[in-house]
Amino acid sequence: MKVKYFKSTDTLYIEFNDSNICESKDLDDNTILDVDAAGNICAITFEHASKRTDMQEVTLEGIAA
Hints:
Blueprint: E1 2-6, E2 11-15, E3 23-28, E4 31-35, E5 41-47, H1 49-52
Antiparallel strand pairs: 1-2, 2-5, 3-4, 4-5
């Protein structure tokens, strides 16, 4: 899993796996869900992330060894 924040565009991108994206679905005007051919979620994009999420703190829990 990868989490990327692009300050220049205030975009938060969370990639759950690196499968080939077959479709991008707009959940609303500022949220995009990427899915593979089987319908599995590959990634999600949040535009205007600092206004919609708490970008001041990132916490990771349950990290597998």
